[in-house]
Each structure stands twice: as structure tokens, then as C-alpha cells.
Amino acid sequence: MRRHPTTGEPDLFGFARDYLHAYMPTVRGLSPKTIEAYRISLECFLGYLTETDHVGHENVTFDHFDREHLKGWLAWMTDQQHYAPKTVTLRLSAIKAFLEYVSHEDVTLVALHQAAKNLKGPASSRTPVEYLSEPETRAILAAFSGQTAKSRRNRMLLILLYDTAARVSEITGLTLQDLSLTDAGHLTLTGKGNRTRIVPLTAKTID
Questions:
Q1: pTM
Q2: Does the residue 83 lie in any domain?
Q3: Is residue 122 part of a domain?
Q4: Spatial CA neighbour of 98 closest among 160, 161, 164, 10
């Protein structure tokens, strides 16, 4: 339990420091880019408080994380900052995740998390996923002739991306130990948060 040495109230910035620099990278194993997104979300909320409530960062406390302030922040991001609905929702999710963390660390903050967790960001329209046609897919895979070692490597990377639906970072992070060409052939992919999953390979890809 972290308490401010002067006020005796929960230490907001002490919790934020532990959350961003210890809990997220060490316990959760999140990437630096993900942690940066959470930090930006916290700073965005502080910026809202400064602009609308004229509260300096040094005077912000957990009392400002109440439901009414969060609802005002959502409206501010949408109406004044003109953030896309997806951005607003992601930033709200980051704040709710932070409040969930502090609620486990300090019982006096549980009510804040309970009040915030049912807040929802603006609805965003779903863009239909567009798929390549078979001729388009063949054209991409044929971009490298395979006549040189580099060309064969590049073609194989495209084939693996197509066959496994893996992220580019997952393919480029592969090691020989992640590849099995015996029955049944598969790849062991390591994704976000160092989570692994096994993806089967087709017989043609193995050949």
C-alpha cells in the first residue's frame, strides 16, 4: 500500500511509476510500445484535467478518477480533440486497467475501479476485412523467382506468412528450434507478451 508522505492519501504517481516501470514490463511482460501507449493514455487524462478543471499535475489525486471525470474525459476526447472512436476506447481501457491494478494494491481504491469498469467508449463502425483473390495471392508469392538464395528466402517468408497467418514480427523472430518439419510439421510462434502458440504447416509448405 503506497501512501503520500504528506497527505497520507494513496500515492497516485507512486502507483503510476510502479505500474509502468515494474508491473507491466516485469509481471505482465508487455512490450515497450504497449507500455508507452498506457503512459500516453494516463498523460492524456492528466491533460484533460489541466485543461478543463485547471488542476496542475502535482494536485491530481485518485479523487479525480471518479466516474464523472472519466465520462467528461470521454466527451472531451470525442468532441474537442476529435479522436477516433477506437483511440478513445483504447485510452479508456488503459485507465480502467490502471484502476484495476491499484484496486488490488489498495482496498480504498476498489470503489473507483468498480465505478469505472462498466464505462464504454464510443461505438466504431467495423470495416469489412478485404481478402486477396487467388490470382492476387499467386502474384505476391511469385514476386520472388527463387533463383538465388536471397530470393528463395524471401519467397519462403511470404509462404510462411500466408500459411500461418502470423504477424511479421512473429515470423522474423523465429529460430530453428521453433520449426518442426517432421510429422506433423508446425511452427512455434511467440507473439505479444511472449505468449506462444503452435501453428500447423501444410504439406506443400513443408516440402
A1: 0.62
A2: yes
A3: no
A4: 10
